[in-house]
Every structure is written in structure tokens, then in C-alpha cells.
Amino acid sequence: MGLEVALWRAVAVYRFAALGYAAVLIAMNSGGPDGYEHPAGGWAVLAVMTVWTAYATFAFSDPRRRGWPLLAADMTVAMGCLLATAWVESTAHLQQGRPTLPVSWVAASVLAWAVVGAKRAGIAAAAILAVGNFLVHVFADTGVRGGPSTVNGVVLLFLAGMVVGHVVKLARDAEARLARAVELEAATRERERLARGIHDSVLQVLAMVQRRGAELGGEAAELGRMAGEQEAALRNLISVRGAPLPPPRPAAGDPPRPGTTTDLRPLLTAYGSTTVTVSTPATPVPLAEPAAREVAAAVGAALDNVREHCGEQARAWVLLEDDGAGEVIVSVRDDGPGMPPGRLEEAAAAGRLGVVQSIRGRIRDLNGTVVIHSAPGEGTEIEMTVPAPR
């Protein structure tokens, strides 16, 4: 909001400064033998420029009115004042290179278009006014299509539209990055505050349950083991510094939201426990939200297979990598007994489709690939690669 206000104030200041310059030239050229052919027309154009400058400054100050209808009206007034030069000024003076009535005042329209639509809109506005500059000489029947002064004015219009539009785009991008940085800082502060509260309450209770369960043995020991896993998972979750909180899981039947992205790291770190170690990059790994859900589900299916076939105490490692070239790689490795050759094909033939559907099927639907490395006594590693368009 601060950037928009500053830009429109600058355009308003330019309008009034250019109006003052045009008023001085019109006053100087209205009398004497070298004056306008129709002096009254020059004063009428100045009056129109004055009224429109006041109205445009007021109109563009309200964000709700900064649309293309107002920009079109601004361009129409600028073009009308420009074309009026052909009637007010004499043919001889135009042939000598005397400037148009509004002079540089018309460039305010180029600036306004550039502020709203960036470089492309600024160049388009400059092209429209360039046509008007040449039409002045056509209507005045000067026999030329504009002298050096006309060409110089047209070039300056194009430069103003291109440069100002580009600067506006850069400024808006910088403002967006600053807002994002402030948002991340606020999220980090809130995460740290929640982490302190959790550490002083929930984590200590879970640690106590784990310790007392191990001392009591029996069913209490199993409860203690589960409390320990939840403590480790919770510690891992709150230790992802700078990452946004994971999005809420969708309800059953709730379709994914297309067009949105989410950081894959929190979705995977949620699987961390005393037996599962999750390693992720320090920077966010954005994926389309539906793709991120499917990758996380495939990782969960792989970890379920580890617990089912390798036992509750088997260790697993999840590694997330972003190669920076448009692919995200997730590998799940365990220290289990491994699989003999042909084991997956036998399971699929017997109707056990956990790996085929839950892992390979999900990744295939994302146009990704799955590679499984396993050998008896050497554990199993599942490597999933999915495209991540930037």
C-alpha cells in the first residue's frame, strides 16, 4: 500500500509540474506576430488540461477507481489536447519544430499506464501518443511527418513507459518479498513461542510417561514406548525452524486445491519418531498441494511396510532432496532383512498391492519414477522422484 501511494503521488506531482511548464509556453506563444493562429484555442486547451489535472489527481488517489476506464479517459484527454495543436498552431510554426500545446504533460498518461500495467502498458500508452504526435502534422498538412523535436518527444515517451514500468515491477516484487520475509519472521516467532510452551508441558509429560512405563514394565512399557515415539515426533516437528506449519489434513472426500503450493518438509517431518529419522533441506521445498499430499502418502505407505515386514523396532531413514533442476527426490531406507529378487512380483500376483498401488501408483500419477534397491540382509531403499515445476 505504501508503494502504490508513493507512485501515484509522484505521478500527481509530475502532472502539476508539466502543467506549469505548458502554461508558460502557451502564455508566451499566445500574443505577437509569432503567436498561435488561434490563441483562444490555446487558452481553451490549457483550461481543459488544468481541470483534468485536478480531477485526475483526485480520481487516481482512490484505489477503487484506478481501473482501465479511468486510464482510457486519461489517454483520451491527453490525445485530444495533443491533436488540438494542429488547429491552434500555424503550419509554419509546426514546420519549424515548435512543440505541441501540452508539451510533456501528455507523458503523465504514460506514467499512469506504466504504474497500473507495468512495462507493457507503458509502452502501449507511448505508442498511442506517438501516433498522435505524427497525426498533428498530418492534420496540419505540414508536408512532413514530424521533425527532430517530434521524434525526440516520441523516443522520450517510449523510454518513460519502458523504464518506469520496469522500475514499478521491480519495486512491487521487492515489496512482495519484504512482506513474505515479515510473514516468515512472524511465523518463526510464533513457532518459537509455541515450542517453549510445548517443551514446558507436553514434552515433559511424555518423557515422564516413557520413563515410568519402562520402570513398570508390561503393558505400561508399551504405553511408555508409544509416548516416547510421540515425544520424538513432536520435538522433530517443532524444530523445523523457518518452515510454515503444515496445512490441515483434508476431510474425507475434500478435493485438493489446484493451483496452490505447499512446503513438503513439514509433511514428511511429521513421520519422525524414535525409529524414523527424517532429513530435509534448510530451505522450503514447494510442490503443488495435491502432489505434496500424494508424495507424503507414498512415504507413509513405505514406512508402514517397514513396520509390517521388519518389525516395530526396525529403523528407517527418510531423506528429502531438491536438486534445483525441477525434480524432488524422496528416499526411504530401512535396516531390515531386505527382499529377495522377485518378491514384489510375487506379492502383486498374490493380490498384495501395497507397493504397486500405494507407492508406485501414486508416484506414477505424478509423472514420477520409483526405484527400489534391496537385497537379502542389506535392507531396502525406495527412491521416489517427482517433477517440481518452478
Structural features, described:
With 390 residues, this protein is of the alpha+beta class. It has two domains: 2-178; 250-387, Heat Shock Protein 90 (2-Layer Sandwich), CATH 3.30.565. It is built from 13 helices and seven strands. The strands form two sheets. A five-stranded mixed β-sheet has the order 2-4-5-7-6. Helix 3 runs parallel beside helix 6. The longest helix is centred in the middle third of the chain and has 53 residues, at 148-200. The chain is elongated, with a radius of gyration of 35 Å. This is Signal transduction histidine kinase. The chain crosses the membrane at residues 7-28, 40-60, 67-88, 100-116, 123-140, 152-171.
Question: Can you lay out the helices and strands and say which pair or pack?
Answer:
Blueprint: H1 2-29, H2 39-60, H3 68-83, H4 85-88, H5 91-95, H6 107-140, H7 148-200, H8 202-216, H9 219-238, E1 261-263, H10 264-269, E2 276-279, E3 286-288, H11 289-310, E4 316-322, E5 327-334, H12 343-349, H13 354-365, E6 369-374, E7 380-387
Parallel strand pairs: 2-4
Antiparallel strand pairs: 1-3, 4-5, 5-7, 6-7
